[in-house]
Amino acid sequence: MRDWYKDAVFYEVSVRAFADSNGDGIGDLPGLTSRLDYLQDLGVDTLWLLPILPSPLRDDGYDVSDYFGVHPVYGTLEDYRQLVRQAHRRGLRIIAELIPNHTSDEHPWFRASRDPQHSEHATYRDWYVWSETDERYPDARIIFLDSERSNWTYDPLRGAYYWHRFFYHQPDLNYDNPEVQRMMLKVIQFWIDQGVDGIRVDAPAYLYEREGTNCENLPETHAYLKRLRAFVDAYAPGTMLLSEANQWPEEVRGYFGEGDEFHMNFHFPLMPRIFIALAKADRSPIEWILSRTPGLPACCQWGTFLRNHDELTLEMVTPEERRLMWDVYAPERRMRLNLGIRRRLAPLLDSDVRRIKLANSILLTLVGSPFLYYGDEIGMGDNIWLEDRDTVRTPMQWDNSPNAGFSTAPAESLYAPLIDDPAYGYQRVNVEAQLADPRSLLNWTRRALRVRRQHPAFGQGSMCLLAPDSPAVLAYVRQHPQETLLVLNNLSPDSQEVSLNVPDLEHPPVDLFTGKVLAHRPGAPLRLQLAGYAYRWFQSRPRAYGHITDELFCQAPNLARHDDG
Ligand code: GLC
Ligand code: CA
């Protein structure tokens, strides 16, 4: 099916954290395969797997030591193919990771590159970015601010500095070297051969370095990414490429090219603004970033998310916005990391189910295809006493048995401790209990995903923001030839009286969750009461098929109509 990713709901899953099949305390591929029924029942379409390649695991597998295999703790290549087959059998798709920018310093290429005595030194000496001094590229920012002082590290064996945008043990590959360029095509080919439906490309913005620039989004980088796409289109047409460029919309636009680079890119700057809007009970931060969001080529789509496996990044906000985010959402120092916040969704929103549902309502109905992070569908907690981003990577909570049904290993040999505090502990927060409770967050998520699946306008429709009187109400219309959807979200704890002109609503709107028809006279303003933090999703048939003019729909001043088709 062409463009399947436009209607998809993605689920980001850590294989290590999901289910342990062999009792060694570490989640693995057969474990994930054994839980596919749960994911199918949840109603997600596509699983994005965090890295499972051989690795010393000093950056959870983003430090690769072999691109052509599976880390033995996660299983074998055959287990991987089995996962893909079993997923496909259930109509689920699989997205793998490509980590092109850097390897682990334990990768054999780097070992050969750094060591003049190594038998393969001549072959690999230029595979990484080496320099006599640590003064080149001074305009490149440091990303892992809490752990690194410089993007250069001295290697005594080689007697030179090597370049790294992330941890010092993750040397950047040298994309000026044609061998490196070719090798990464072989890597992507290998994973396509395992049957995957798409690839997330990690940290694509940093492939090349040039003096006098910040070494991000360079034309050389885009040229290579286009070559990668052309290769994939020729080799396995239909394979979706997803980019992780954490950039402002104007820069991100480049990663879609003319529809010849990535199919998808995450909308990083939108994410914190959903939290800011909630904190201020004011929709304007979301309006503002959407007004800066360009239209995309026809085959492209935004990827939206509330949380993921990293810290909630605050790179794409102003210093004042960052301050507000820290004050409201990370009052304790240990909750912060680099420029972000290392907490999960439920604790960020004080476990307030109304706010969690509201944030998800925005995620599931605004532009793009949404990504859920494993465990957030049951409101899992975090553990800020763990290091780095391990805070949000604890074992999945399946039931209230010892180890939460994650593993049969002794508790002390789990790769990370389970959450077992009074508020979020697995004894209380787990899949089994929530499946049995019709009012649980899990069952709400299942319902919401079912509703979304029935309405192509959510994934494919145009989008236009409305301007209700109250700034706390975020309202928009999603339009598709078959239907018009109207969504209202109340960002405030106080109830709101809404009166809205929605000229296209000739047919009375039907509530998508309850099936109830809202009393409404065509031509008259739509009137309704929204309880604190309430959301409403309505459907109405459009008055006329086809194009509806901007004037009719965009009442908010200075807002472009957002057409993602
Ligand atoms: C990406 C990953 C992150 C990793 C980094 C370095 O940002 O999401 O987890 O640490 O790349 O590979
Ligand atoms: Ca295991």
Can you give a write-up of this model?
With 565 residues, the protein is an alpha/beta fold. Helices cover 27% and strands 16% of the residues. It contains 18 helices and 21 strands. It has helices spanning 15-18, 29-34, 36-42, 77-89, 108-114, 121-124, 178-193, 219-235, 249-253, 270-280, 284-291, 319-329, 345-348, 353-365, 431-436, 441-453, 456-460, 550-553, and strands spanning 10-13, 46-49, 93-98, 130-131, 152-155, 160-163, 198-201, 240-243, 264-266, 301-305, 312-313, 336-337, 340-341, 369-373, 462-465, 473-480, 483-490, 496-500, 510-511, 526-530, 535-540. The strands form 5 sheets. The chain has an 8-stranded parallel β-barrel with strand order 1-2-3-7-8-9-10-14. Strand 5 (152-155) and strand 6 (160-163) form a beta hairpin. The longest helix is centred in the middle third of the chain and has 17 residues, at 219-235. The chain starts with 9 loop residues before the first strand and ends in a 12-residue tail after the last helix. It binds alpha-D-glucopyranose and calcium ion. Residues 59, 62, 99, 166, 202-203, 309-310 line the site of alpha-D-glucopyranose.
Please give a handful of descriptors for the protein shown:
565 residues; alpha/beta; eight-stranded parallel barrel; five-stranded antiparallel β-sheet; 18 helices; 27% helix; disordered C terminus; binds alpha-D-glucopyranose; binds calcium ion
Task: Please outline the helices and strands.
Blueprint lengths: L9 E4 L1 H4 L10 H6 L1 H7 L3 E4 L27 H13 L3 E6 L9 H7 L6 H4 L5 E2 L20 E4 L4 E4 L14 H16 L4 E4 L17 H17 L4 E4 L5 H5 L10 E3 L3 H11 L3 H8 L9 E5 L6 E2 L5 H11 L6 E2 L2 E2 L3 H4 L4 H13 L3 E5 L57 H6 L4 H13 L2 H5 L1 E4 L7 E8 L2 E8 L5 E5 L9 E2 L14 E5 L4 E6 L9 H4 L12
Parallel strand pairs: 1-2, 1-14, 2-3, 3-7, 7-8, 8-9, 9-10, 10-14
Antiparallel strand pairs: 4-6, 5-6, 11-13, 12-13, 15-16, 16-17, 17-21, 18-20, 19-21
Helix pairs in contact: 7-8, 10-11, 10-12, 14-16
The chain binds alpha-D-glucopyranose (GLC) and calcium ion.
